DNA sequence: CATACCATTTCAAACGTTTGCGAAAAGAGT
DNA sequence: ACTCTTTTCGCAAACGTTTGAAATGGTATG
């Protein structure tokens, strides 16, 4: 049961002046008599007057709301993106509405429609894995609501993008394994229809090539979940017992592999070195701690927020901008065959 | 650069009829001529007309927005709460605005003020650890915006609450350790000024008492972070080498303890059994997998959302409701001294 | 032929705020 | 006493939508 919020009209009525005078008095307009100003401001404070944001939104045709659609917030990476967005948005007086697609195309469409009618000022989106058609993005584009893609982008749409250099990250990870003495590395790869999966694989291959390491038919395994790695790795190791390094497409898979390696009594990193990708919380929790590639979720979120704010506040329609962030190699115990002093 | 959104006025102008007729035609009002209806509805579809939510908000004095304030979304537990809230809210046409307090009292106050002026219809809040004064909650109460506390509640304010039975959870965890043969259990406890810390400790003590197990001066250690456990446990074990069980106030601490135990070459669970609290993702990732208490974040979120919706939609001012959810013991390898067939 | 009645449509107010413009009042200058 | 200026304030429109009440035009009833 909502109590009546104090409005400008209320103040006007009490003071026997007009709403416009109150409005001007509150913002220190020079046209207003100092005494009137004082009266208004004091009463406003006393009654805890707060401007009604909705009325302002209607007038100014903006909601100071940014819609954020991510697959699942429970994933560390996405929640760091969100944190980054929130920080920058808040600094400019914006708030974020969060919706999850749960990797479902339909939920994504639904969310976009719903947020659109909430009159958000812009979208920040990470595509769902199952999104294969893009009419809903096109629709947003037509309506003229700005949109920024983060991490997973749709290249059929004119929109800003914030990506991470997956190729380079994978290259660095693989190079690191090689420098630590690995000569027979397996890559647990993601789905090859996603850019992420593809780029990381390419980076892996490039690093091997540059070091003149030959590629075997088992060097690349499509395997990107914890449980799959748990099953796959023991088989693989029993078949090819010279494997001495694993580069996984994400941390969770790397940790599955880690468990599997331990289960067949091979030592990490002495016998098999492991590197993941993302630098999520679990990489630090793992035992031994997991070497990984920092995907910079927080920075990505901040960047995306700045981009959307720029779009929202800009008058002219400059072309789409793509930012590619660098990754960092985070070296921990799981890959250190050679001790660093 | 935002393109002009199609409004009812646009449609009215094109069809040479009044906005009110358009409005009624769109909602199938019986007063409107079927032919007019058809014209309007077809044009509306053609122009992709979408009602302006802001205008409706202003008229109906509601925003269909629920403000959610949590300490940090990167924590698995909070993100599951959010997911639960989102699901129920969406089902009723509501959206959630998320703000993080980062466990800071000031950020919490700031967030509440900001969301309040965004005219949200209600709050769902998990108190920050550093929140010790409650005027900002009182303010919300006075204004008449409904509020539900989740997990960490403020008892100085008349508001609904969704809590978890911490005492019972801790009791079950401890009992489980005892049933598995532990006779010398250490509890890594949370801060005792928070109800969570207190209740879990009490549950622990009650379980020991009920089993006639004596309590030592080192049975309770204030230690609730991964890193602290990492440092504390080795010292403790070298001093009291008969310790055979650890019950930690949260999963992260449990895993810190786990690492520490392994580092002094004690076997888990054979020599030392470990149980955590929360059932976060990492408990499943840990090696060995961690036995823990499921804190039911998703259910809590759902419950909180239902409560706030009920408040928002209710006309009369019924007294504050508190719901206490049961926890589940999730048994995994880290505690199983006795094998279950 | 006036009245009643119906279907259909429009008017106007409302939600809370901002803002260009005009108006009233008071003082200054001639 | 007249105009001119300045100070201070109110009117009205606008944002997009809903909705009770009034208006319109037409037909049927007395």
Write the layout of secondary structure elements.
2 copies of one chain form a homodimer.
Chain A: H1 8-15, H2 19-26, H3 34-46, H4 53-60, E1 65-70, H5 76-91, E2 95-100, H6 105-117, E3 122-125, H7 135-143, E4 147-150, E5 160-164, H8 166-179, E6 185-189, H9 195-210, E7 220-222, H10 226-239, E8 245-248, H11 251-263, E9 273-275, H12 281-285, E10 292-294, H13 297-313, E11 322-325, E12 328-330
Parallel strand pairs in A: 1-2, 1-3, 3-4, 4-5, 5-11, 6-7, 6-8, 8-9
Antiparallel strand pairs in A: 10-12
Helix pairs in contact in A: 1-2, 2-3, 5-13, 8-9, 10-11
The structure holds a DNA duplex (30 and 30 nucleotides).
- CATH architecture of the largest domain in chain A, please? 3-Layer(aba) Sandwich
The SSE order of chain A reads: HHHHEHEHEHEEHEHEHEHEHEHEE
Structural class of chain A: alpha/beta
The gross shape of chain A turns out to be elongated
Strand fraction of chain A equals: 5-15%
CATH class of the largest domain in chain A: Alpha Beta
Largest protein-protein interface: A-B, 60 and 59 residues
The tally of structural domains of chain A comes to 3
Gap between N and C termini of chain A, in Å? 66 Å
Brief characterization of the structure:
With about 350 residues, chain A is of the alpha/beta class.
Tell me what you see in this structure.
2 copies of one chain form a homodimer. By secondary structure, the first copy, chain A, is of the alpha/beta class. Chain A folds into 3 domains: 44 residues, no CATH class; 137 residues, Rossmann fold (3-Layer(aba) Sandwich); 136 residues, Rossmann fold, CATH 3.40.50.2300. In chain A, 45% of the residues lie in helices and 15% in strands. Chain A contains 13 helices and 12 strands. In chain A, the strands form 3 sheets. A 6-stranded parallel beta sheet of chain A has the order 2-1-3-4-5-11. In chain A, strands 7-6-8-9 form a 4-stranded parallel beta sheet. A two-stranded antiparallel ribbon of chain A has the order 10-12. In chain A, β3, α7 and β4 form a beta-alpha-beta unit. At the A-B interface, α4, α5, β2, α6 and α7 of A face α4, α5, β2, α6 and α7 of B. Chain A binds a DNA duplex (30 and 30 nucleotides) through α2 and α4.
